[in-house]
Amino acid sequence: MLHYAPADVERLTPEPGKPGDERHPWEIDRARILHSAAFRRLQRKTQVFAPGEGDFFRTRLTHSIEVSQIAKGIALRVGADPTLCEAASLAHDIGHPPFGHAGESVLHHCMAGSGGFEGNAQNLRVVATLEVKTVDYLGLNLTRATIDAMLKYKRSYSEALVSGDAKFFYDDDLPLVEWACQRCRDDRTSFECQIMDWADDVAYSIHDIEDGMWAGLVTPDRLRQTRVEADPGVAAAVLAELEQILAVEGGRPRKAATKTWSSNAIYEMVHAASPEVAPDQGRGPRYRLQLRVEPRVREKSRVLKALADELVLRHERISSTQDRADLILSSLFRAFTAHPELISEDFLGPDPARATCDYISGMTDDYAEQAYQRLVAEDVLSGPDAGA
After folding, report:
1. Which among 52, 225, 291, 370 would be 20 to 30 A from 175, CA to CA?
2. How far apart, in whole angstroms, are the C-alpha atoms of residue 121 and residue 114?
3. Element holding 58 (H helix, E strand)
4. Taking the CA atoms of the chain, what radius of gyration do you get in angstroms?
């Protein structure tokens, strides 16, 4: 395992710790994330299918737990600290809004000219500012290594506007990011962040297809009609695997075949990862290695994601969420911006637009629906589309 440095476990606000607490700092980070209100709310936030569509489909919560377990397996294989990778993975979606990617798009549009909205940026804001643990500091006061492992993108909103990139962190969080990166900020991510990112790719490339099968959106006919731009050999192998599952008759045998396939696919992708030596350029042990994934296996993940995008995410059953998310979230944004007294005091701040965005992005799908209906009933929302 990597030999980490004392700086990796430092917190922005030094804490004396509780007497007799024998946990490692990253075990404390993991616990703080698990016990946070934002993490609990993920149980009612959309991953692909809305939480109300059934008790089988994954939510943001179950997805985050699955990513953390995959990341732990990769970490054990490549020599990173498994608890650190678990902690970062549990937090990797903690700031994502209701209604999945549709909600993220709506809030970014609402925040145009006000600092933008981006799910990864909001992850950082939640753990560093919004969560309440003590009056001694804002947020969860996570260690430097955990914060850095969450930083998939190290450009600020203002820098992203110039470069044309869609991913960023908020300008207000620049001092925190500089601290996490120890003033060595560029596009490189830590070894643990790369592990978390690959674990996320593994989870959703496989599980979106699995959920799509269960929902009846991935069928033999639809598979045969779908074309993806990929290595022909890899694409053919993936299609053959999926068609073999779909050929199994009977509910229980097919469910077993699906679980066997997903288990084997995760195992294959975890074991395709290996560490490579990289120049750390003075950044310390978390940058002395980088993650290598066998190209064929990375291509397999890409094929699965492309199939999930075409067969599941673009299906009318899923894509129709965009219109509903647009109506509800944009209406809530207008209402709470005009009436800040309706926002929970935990989210109030000097910037009304950011306070509104924070409040809405923290909502579950159900709560956003209920808030919208309540505001319509109370005539806070009006206009031709308010009751649509």
Report:
1. 291
2. 14
3. none
4. 22
Among residues 184, 129, 124, 126, which one has the least CA distance to residue 152?
124
Number of helices (H) and strands (E), helices first, in the chain? 18, 2
Count CA atoms closer than 13 A to 178's CA, side-chain side: 7
Give CA–CA dist 266/159, Å, rounded.
36
The answer to whether 331 touches 342, Cβ cutoff 8 Å, is no
Q: How far apart are CA 323 and CA 318, in angstroms?
A: 10
Q: Which domain holds residue 253?
A: 191-319
User: Closest Cα to residue 329, out of 384, 375, 276?
Assistant: 375
Report which DSSP code applies to 36.
S
Bridge partners (DSSP) listed for residue 11: 143
Q: How many structural domains compose the chain?
A: 1
Q: How far is CA 305 from the centre of its chain?
A: 15
Pair 118, 167: CB distance under 8 Å: yes
Q: Which helix (H) or strand (E) holds 276?
A: strand 273-277
Residues 65, 126 contacting (CB under 8 angstroms): no
Question: Which tokens hold the place of 3?
Answer: 């030999």
Are 38 and 126 in contact by the 8 Å Cβ rule? The answer is yes
Per-residue confidence band for 387, with pLDDT thresholds at 50, 70 and 90: very low
Structure tokens belonging to residue 30: 């993991």
Q: What CA–CA distance (Å, rounded) separates 319 from 143?
A: 38
What are the pLDDT digits (tens) for 227-264? Answer: 888 889 999 999 999 999 999 988 899 999 999 999 99
Residue 362 near residue 347, CB atoms below 8 Å: yes
213 in a domain, yes or no?
Answer: yes
On whether residue 210 sits in a domain, the answer given is: yes
Let me know if residue 9 belongs to a domain. Answer: no
pTM confidence score: 0.94
Which pair of structure tokens corresponds to residue 238? 């993936």
Which residue type, as a one-letter code, is found at position 334? R
In a domain, 60, yes or no: no
Amino acid at 115: G
Give the number of C-alpha atoms closer than 13 A to the C-alpha of residue 156, restricted to the C-beta side: 13
DSSP letters spanning 117-170: --HHHHHHHIIIIIS-SBTTBSTT--BHHHHHHH-S---BHHHHHHHT-S--B-
Q: How far apart are CA 360 and CA 378, in angstroms?
A: 18
**Res 388 pLDDT > 70:** no
